[in-house]
Amino acid sequence: MAGRNICSYCGKKLEGKFCYGCGDGKTKEIYCSVECLEKHRMALEKVRKNMKWFAAGIAVSVLLMLSSAFLSAGGKESGKITGGCGMLLLGLTVVLFPYCTPETYAMFGYVKTNRLGRVIGVLVAIFGLWMLFEG
Description:
single chain; about 140 residues; two-stranded antiparallel ribbon; 4 helices
């Protein structure tokens, strides 16, 4: 977000405070302290390491939901089960790996955005459980 001066890690407003910054030429990230800068670097390294598991969880959950659509179209009861399992897996994937868009990180900071992602993941997992037992 242009014009927003918040710490890229914790999301605190930086008005009138000394900022620590870094950037790759395309993006400019600013931090309220050296600790936030180091914590953000470690968090981004963790994201890079876990990205394959995030992608695998999303892919498997989408395949489960697609297969449930075809099974349900055939009138089979197993379509509800696979759809619920797909939504539950999607929710659990987002809870474990709450990776959001760069725009959301720029708006709220890393910590607040991860909390938001986890809340959304819990809601999706609850919906998946509802689909399994009530759907």
